[in-house]
Design brief:
There is one protein chain. The strands form 2 sheets. Strands 5-4-1-8-9-10-11-12-13-14 form a 10-stranded mixed β-sheet, sandwiched between helices. A 4-stranded mixed β-sheet has the order 3-2-6-7. By secondary structure, the protein is an alpha/beta fold. The longest helix has 15 residues. It contains 9 helices and 14 strands. Bound molecules: alpha-D-ribofuranose. The site of alpha-D-ribofuranose has 15 residues, from strand 2, helix 1, strand 7 and helix 7. Alpha-D-ribofuranose (RIB) binds next to strand 2, helix 1, strand 7 and helix 7.
């Protein structure tokens, strides 16, 4: 079982000619309200990639909560550990400009009331977390996963410093370039190439580190191997949620005992396909769509 412990939100997406400067008002014609939140997106990606998924999170007693849960319900994700809280369901305002560049503000609402007391992992489970709920609960989530014999995967997004004692308890850490840079700064590894930072973190904490590089593919560093993966060639129209699609499909592959090569390929295809439709969840692919593009991914062993 994959247990995704994290955030859920309703995304209000506005297409703007350009992103506003501080203090500036920009007019735009329409907007759409779509399910989102990094935790929910990753839970959906894991389920669509064939994983058996339970999502542990909080919503408000409101219409946003129902709308935000809709896709997860349809995908058959177990929602029995979702709690209705006093704060409203989180909402993210996402502005996307004509070049696809985006700006996101998340009002956390009920995500702030999510607690690791909701978690009930068992030995052999995969607990997947991000950093959109209170940090103390992320750390408790790691401890709870490890104490119960579950594998622990952290997508350090949006980045906040990770104390070494928790880094060392992870099985897999997944970061993008910005997060890897911030991680390097927080660990006093400034000025080094990001690939060297990730290799050092892998070695120092004995964990697998995955570095996603957007249009340049991805790298993985484990005890046994270093891998480089090309990007899936797609016509990208919206990158919001692409990282979540990568993470969810990667963990779905892990839960099926796939090799690290295969997990990277599944994540890469899912992340690429997610960019071909607007919104965080509409582009998240099903298993068949992922399988049909796997032969376009080359995984090279480097170093
Ligand atoms: O990763 C994309 C997500 O980040 C969006 O769905 C938005 O809710 C923000 O949390």
């Amino acid at each position: 079982m994959i247990i995704v412990f994290g955030s859920i939100a309703l995304d209000i997406v506005q297409l703007v000619p350009r992103l506003p400067r501080p203090g500036e008002t920009i007019l735009t014609a329409d907007y759409v309200m779509l399910p989102g939140g990094k935790g929910a997106n990753q839970a959906l990606a894991a389920a669509r990639a064939g994983g058996d998924v339970s999502f542990v999170a909080s919503v408000g007693d409101d219409n946003f909560g129902q709308r935000a849960l809709n896709n997860l319900e349809l995908a058959g994700v177990d929602l029995s550990n979702i709690i209705e809280r006093t704060r409203p369901t989180a909402c993210a305002t996402i502005s996307v400009d004509s070049s696809g560049e985006n700006q996101i503000v998340v009002s956390s609402g009920a995500n702030l009331e999510t607690t690791a007391d909701q978690l009930e992992p068992e030995a052999g489970d995969f607990v997947l977390q991000q950093m959109e709920i209170p940090l103390a609960e992320v750390w408790r989530g790691i401890e709870c996963a490890k104490a119960n014999g579950a594998k622990c995967i952290l997508n350090a997004a949006p980045f906040q410093a990770i104390p070494p004692e928790f880094l060392g308890q992870l099985d897999v850490l997944i970061v993008n370039e910005i997060e890897a840079q911030m991680l390097a700064d927080s660990l006093d590894l400034r000025g080094e190439e990001l690939s060297s930072v990730c290799a050092q973190i892998q070695d120092r904490y004995d964990i697998t580190v995955v570095l996603t590089l957007g249009a340049n593919g991805a790298l993985a560093f484990s005890n046994e191997e270093r891998l480089q993966v090309n990007v899936l060639p797609v016509c990208a129209i919206d990158t919001v949620g692409a990282g979540d699609a990568f993470v969810g499909a990667f963990v779905a592959a892990m839960s099926r005992q796939f090799t690290l090569d295969e997990c990277m390929a599944w994540g890469t295809v899912a992340g690429g396909l997610a960019c071909t439709k607007p919104g965080a969840q509409d582009g998240i692919p099903e298993t068949a769509a992922i399988r049909s593009r796997l032969d376009e991914i080359q995984v090279s062993h480097v170093g």
